[in-house]
Amino acid sequence: xxxxxxxxxxxxxxxxxxxxxxxxxxxxxxxxxxxxxxxxxxxxxxxxxxxxxxxxxxxxxxxxxxxxxxxxxxxxxxxxxxxxxxxxxxxxxxxxxxxxxxxxxxxxxxxxxxxxxxxxxxxxxxxxxxxxxxxxxxxxxxxxxxxxxxxxxxxxxxx
Length: 159
Hints:
Elements (H helix, E strand, L loop, with lengths): L2 H18 L14 H8 L5 E5 L1 E3 L6 E3 L5 H12 L8 E6 L8 H12 L5 E5 L9 H4 L12 H6 L2
Parallel strand pairs: 1-4, 4-5
Antiparallel strand pairs: 2-3
Helix pairs in contact: 1-2, 3-4
């Protein structure tokens, strides 16, 4: 994953944590200390799902690289979205990357209905560093948020 892709992915994960936070700060960022934040950081939040090219082997818990995000994982996401929130905040899923070479056509088509009519309080965050490559059927159902690369001065001000 290049630096732009990893920055986009990190932004998506931070947004997901902020949506799941039980005591968000005044600026909208996650507090980092509530139970929701702790669960999210540990990767154990019951209302958070990640569809990525890394998958956990259920047998031994090791990470493996997948070639694509397949239809079976998108169907699991659809089922996840239909469940009631465990922590009474939101349900969030991050799909990264959302480009067609990473999410096959069958998976993209299976995602359309959930994108079109997500249950209340459900957020699907699709990450793409090349949004022009995401299928038009998916893009038409999304609110696009551009995250331009910050200037060097802005980046340095954060440290």
